[in-house]
Amino acid sequence: MDFSLTDEQRAIQETARDFARREVDPIVEEIDESQKFPKDVMKKAGELGFLGIIFPEEYGGAGLGYVEYVIVITELSKVDPSVGISVAAHNSLGTNDIYKFVSE
Which of 60, 58, 35 has the alpha carbon at shortest distance from 50? Predict the structure, then answer.
């Protein structure tokens, strides 16, 4: 069984890694000390499709799968676990219930 990432998955990994380094890393201490939710970071994560990564494009998602989801969460969490878990919670705890249980 081959567990290598595809070219698309490596590109997503690099995008998430660059985003975490560029947008999250400079403010890690600030958001930790102030205990403020990083709204601007989350908005930018949404613009990259990270807040809807597992949902179909027809509903505004990125149309990707759980491997890509785990890649994004992992890269964000390497820099700041609170940002990683916020993205995970948005996808899994909030939006996923709406997607699964709400009719058209």
Answer: 60
> Residue 13 — φ and ψ, nearest 5°?
-60, -45
Number of H helices, E strands in the chain: 6, 0
Q: How do residues 39-51 score in pLDDT, each as one tens digit? A: 999 999 999 999 9
pTM summary value: 0.92
Give the SS3 label for residue 48. Answer: coil
How far, in Å, CA of 30 to CA of 100, rounded? 36
pLDDT at 104 over 90: no
- Taking each helix axis from N to C end, the angle separating 66-79 and 81-89, rounded to the nearest 10 degrees, works out to 150
N-term to C-term CA, the chain: 39
Are the C-beta atoms of 53 and 68 separated by less than 8 Å? Answer: yes
Sign for the CA dihedral angle at 5, 40, 60, 94 comes to positive
